[in-house]
Sequence to fold (145 residues):
Amino acid sequence: MLDISILPPLCAGLNALAALLLVAGRRAIRRHNVAQHRRLMLGAFGVSSVFLLLYVLHKAARDFEHTRFNADGVAQALYLVLLASHVLLAAAVPVLALLLIRFGLRGELPRHRRLARVAWPIWLYVSFTGVLIYLLLYPLNPEGL
Fold:
């Protein structure tokens, strides 16, 4: 039987790696290094895709039960706002990323640039908050509430 307990920290690591690749990819294009930008951004897409596969595998293996954040009051409310924004924006990332890849590879650079101005910060936010949510649900989750 597969030990799925490794999946949450692995998924958090993949999210962190995706965030780093996104930042590096943006830095590369600002230096006009298109080839490096393409490699880094396709790498971010690949890492994010592996994350999504492993995340769904983990959820399916646990019968889609949720992990409770054991806090009350303001802490619980802030966590729920963070989680809601993460989930809503995460739903858009695959579509945005596929469109960016399509526009970039087809040389439709004005469309690629316009979309990237919106999509890049969303993707970065989702990757960063994915790591934060992992930390809140696992190593920092208060016990006994």
Q: What stands out?
A: Residues 99 and 109 are 12 Å apart (CA to CA).
